[in-house]
Amino acid sequence: MKISFIKYEKELGYNLPQILGMNVEKIKEPEEVDEKIEELKQQKYTTIVISNELASFSESIISKYKYDSSLNIVIMP
What we know:
Rossmann fold; 4 helices; single chain; four-stranded parallel beta sheet; alpha/beta
């Protein structure tokens, strides 16, 4: 199982995942979240964690990935 976090560069936090050696991808604009999710899926990541704020910028989370059994998207507050 490969896990990645997507972090908007202006968000705070994500120190613990980085300290533990987990992948934390940074994006410059929230609108890039769908492209980053697709990129991570191509790299065979099975779980992607994003903030609630970033999830609101994604048009594909509900429509495209809701029924995708190969990808789990976790939305955290």
